[in-house]
Each structure stands twice: as structure tokens, then as C-alpha cells.
Design goal:
The chain has two domains: 204 residues, 2-enoyl-CoA Hydratase, Chain A, domain 1, CATH 3.90.226; 50 residues, no CATH class. It is built from twelve helices and eleven strands. It has a seven-stranded mixed beta sheet with strand order 1-2-3-4-6-8-11, with helices on both faces. A four-stranded mixed beta sheet has the order 5-7-9-10. The longest helix has 18 residues. It is globular. The chain starts with a strand and ends in a 9-residue tail after the last helix.
């Protein structure tokens, strides 16, 4: 099933319990345009609302880039005047905020360039798997851009302050191996094995109890927030819902019967 995102530059479809979101501008190395930003919340909210979607995979079309950053060709028109920048930032903020509305696991399948806004996109996901030869970086310091606190905060939380400092201050490109060392990616696989590896992981997650996976995702998210802002009541309620679910009983039965459980998310 295809989701109408309002643009052919960001595609969304649902296939066998997996929501696929594709940045689709390979001729521009999937640079993020305003139309893409506007479409991201549409796709993510459709996946979140569909009970059949267990896992989301995000990737870039063409095999040469995940996302190569913001579409700089739009900056003159859309990110120069105060008014235009405010409109662009509003759309961008809604797009970034929509990632936090999703309580389903998201995997980034990264091949090629993962630069600037591409790296920021990747770190919105829960798990990042890249191909050999992929490159990562934040070129803001070479462009004179102001890099917002939210992006810095997320990068520091992922890599620690020392790696974040090197990435931001130097604006250099990191190899896949350096990205693994910095904690940007979970693992590296050969390019020809990338999709198979991501599909295998997605299938493994999709077969697990969705209520448990969602509760764990929300708990991880709250751990990363300031202690005074954590919604522990929500985490506790979601955890308790697991114990009260039919899936919990199914898990026990399957264990005793030595068979694979069939979880339904209820």
C-alpha cells in the first residue's frame, strides 16, 4: 500500500508490516527540499496510525546517498529573508518533531552520503546500519550556517561531546569505520548485503511483541531527556499494559509449547 505524501520526492509504502520511507531525489543525492520536509510528518503519522506497521525503514533512492544534506539551491529563495526563513524553519521544526511522535522502531538503511541534514535525519532513527564506503559529516562550519541547539544536543547524546566537537568543528567527512567508532552507526555491512541485513533485522523486530517494543522505545527516549522532564508515568503505564496484554499470555504459552509466538499487539 502506498501513502500519498503530496510529493514524489518522498515516497512511503507499507509492505509486510514494514513502513518504507524513501528520500527520492537521486539526481541531487537526495538533498532535503522543503517539499520533502512537509511530507515527512505525513508519512510518519500514516505509519504510526496503521496497526499493521511494526517497523519503519528509512533510506535514500539511487544507491549513492542516504541524504546529502539540505537542498542548498533553495537557500537563496527560502532561507535568506527573515520571513522566508521563518516559514522554512516552521516546516523543518514540524518535520523534526514528527519523529518524536512515533513509538514504533525506525531503522536507517544508509548507503553513500549521509551529510548535514542527512546525518540529523539518521540520528532521529533508533538503529542505523550503513554500507561500506558510506560517509558522514556536518558541513555547517564550512557554510557559515548556525547549527541549532537541538541538533547539537542529539549529536552529543549519541556520540559524546568529544566526537560531536570533532564532527562539528572540523566539518570533515567521516568514514563508515569512524562513524561506527563514534557510535553514529550500529554496524557496517557490504553494500550488496545492506538491504538483506536491514530486512532481516526488521523482520526480527516485527515478530516480537509490539507493545513491549513500543514501551522500550518510549523508555529509551525518556532516559535521554532531562530527569525533571521525564514522563515516567507514561513509561510505567505502557509497561503495565504489556503485562495485561493477550500477547503476554501468548508469550508464556509459546514458551511452554516450544513454538514461535504469534503476537498481535493486544
Amino acid at each position: 500500500m502506498h501513502v500519498d505524501t503530496g510529493t514524489d520526492k518522498l515516497l512511503a509504502r507499507i509492505e509486510d508490516g514494514i513502513g518504507w520511507m524513501t528520500y527520492n531525489a537521486p539526481e541531487r543525492h537526495n538533498a532535503i527540499s522543503l517539499s520533502m520536509q512537509l511530507a515527512v510528518p505525513v508519512a510518519l503519522r500514516a505509519f504510526q496510525a496503521d496497526p499493521d506497521v511494526r517497523v519503519i525503514i528509512v533510506h535514500g533512492a539511487g544507491g549513492r546517498a542516504f541524504v546529502s544534506g539540505a537542498d542548498i539551491s533553495e537557500f537563496g529563495e527560502k532561507r535568506t529573508s527573515v520571513e522566508a526563513r521563518a516559514e522554512y524553519d516552521k516546516a523543518a521544526n514540524e518535520a523534526w518533531g514528527s519523529w518524536r511522535e512515533v513509538d514504533k522502531p525506525i531503522i536507517a538503511m544508509i548507503q553513500g552520503y549521509c551529510i548535514g541534514g542527512g546525518l540529523l535525519t539518521a540520528i532521529q532513527t533508533d538503529i542505523r546500519i550503513c554500507s561500506e564506503g558510506s560517509v558522514f559529516g556536518v558541513p555547517a562550519a564550512k557554510l557559515g550556517l548556525g547549527y541549532g541547539y537541538g541538533g547539537v544536543e542529539q549529536l552529543v547524546a549519541l556520540t559524546g561531546p568529544a566526537w560531536a566537537a570533532e564532527i562539528l568543528f572540523s566539518a570533515r567527512r567521516l568514514s563508515a569505520e569512524e562513524a561506527l567508532q563514534a557510535g553514529v552507526v550500529n554496524r557496517i555491512v557490504p553494500a550488496e548485503q545492506l538491504e538483506a541485513a536491514v530486512r532481516e533485522l526488521a523482520a526480527t523486530i516485527a515478530a516480537n511483541a509490539p507493545l513491549t517494543v513500543a514501551a522500550c522505545k518510549v523508555a529509551i527516549r525518556e532516559v535521554l531527556r532531562d530527569p525533571g522532564k521525564r514522563d515516567l508515568a507514561k513509561v510505567n503505564a505502557m509497561t503495565e499494559a504489556c503485562f495485561r496484554s493477550e500477547d503476554y499470555l501468548e508469550g508464556q504459552r509459546a514458551f511452554m509449547e516450544k513454538r514461535t509466538p504469534r503476537f498481535r499487539g493486544v
